[in-house]
């Protein structure tokens, strides 16, 4: 019987026990081998694209419709080769991408402080919060006529449309990021003396980062869509040839392979920017927090 | 068998000669209109002496966490005053509250940085604190890579990094399994006896309170009032399965049960 004579726990025993607990409970983080990544992440989309091409080719062979409505995949490939040999392919892409990225950076510079204001100042939130989230559901192509009347068919009109499309997304992303910060983090920060600006810098902003990055991602998608809409509608020779104008020119020439190529290039650029810039950023942030599904 | 070295008192105040580490003086707390709602805390007076380990015990609804928030300065009392002469106390929660965007080591360094420790000394100090909670190799570990017990130890190291004289703990081990909790009880008493910390430890677990505290304070529920206090005379290191701990726990549990039954009769 132990009685009240309290036997101290032997230090060695306890350290051993502790080490055992740590070893049993610690989460093992494994890296997926390259072969498995190729098999699980790269192969499926490649197979899907090949399938679409096969179906397309079969439809052409079956002559379901006229040639000028559904050209052979190789005709689209021919258009691509001609653009490449002209040396205009990269110019066309770059004209649109540089506009899109510049517009996006401007939207970032406006949307971030706006989002912080809406998230942290109740009056501002009450005043413009609903409008800001409402604007997200307004297709930004609706702004094109207004932008053209205000600013003419100019680069300025393009940027205006991009901003009107992307700023609400970025601001809303930050707002929902801030709203989703667990109050416990803020309390923990306050007990450590992270209040005011230091609280925002060391606790609030890093905690809201996943939501903010989701907003950036969506903001880019909106920038790109808005820009393409603007280029399609407000195309003019003085603006330089971007993807939207290329598509519009192909339409007026009844050049169906060119139209399909235009659509594919717009899709390709949208996906490429997401894959190169936003997805790695998002994955990195989530993985750091143990949130990313592998 | 020696009898459990306990004395029961009701309401203690430190003499004016020794300044208390925490002085809770006739504190009331109610949410909403004063007088309209039943207060959460009603006339709580409690001092924690420098270097003392006090456990606050009570059933749910006794306002234990509210009281800790008041002492931590996260909220203000409706009436009465709270003084913590040593400056802002450190607070540990039931959830680890570590920041998931930082590694274990960086979490501790953030606390050091906010305290004003220059950059050059932070890394070494963080390593030292991790050693103190026996997590020497965990500096670069992400929070999600650590077990529940390890997370609470990092949280303890982060609280210690604030270099406060007072450590407030809000049921920090409630979510852990029994063996891990036992290990952490031991680590906490070891660290407490090696430092000059005053600890105010909130729990609903009677045995835990008796295992850890030099003094156990029982609060009533709705409103929270100090019902009774016990000086726990059992020498450290104690074990949760010690007979003396068990005997006193039985006595306190009976009192706690009586306190809970009172609510059923209303």
From TrEMBL, chain A:
InterPro entries: MetI-like (IPR000515), MetI-like_sf (IPR035906). The chain crosses the membrane at residues 42-62, 100-119, 131-151, 157-178, 199-216, 259-281. Residues 93-277 form the ABC transmembrane type-1 domain. Signal peptide: none annotated. Its main location: membrane. SUPFAM superfamilies: MetI-like. This is Sulfate ABC transporter permease. It comes from Streptomyces cinnamoneus (Streptoverticillium cinnamoneum).
UniProtKB/TrEMBL annotation, chain B:
It holds the Pfam family ABC_tran. The keyword Transferase does not apply. InterPro entries: AAA+_ATPase, ABC_transporter-like_ATP-bd, ABC_transporter-like_CS, ABC_transporter_ATP-bind, P-loop_NTPase. Keywords: ATP-binding, Nucleotide-binding, Transport. It comes from the Bacteria. GO terms for molecular function: ATP binding; ATP hydrolysis activity. Residues 22-246 form the ABC transporter domain. This is ABC transporter ATP-binding protein. It comes from Streptomyces cinnamoneus (Streptoverticillium cinnamoneum).
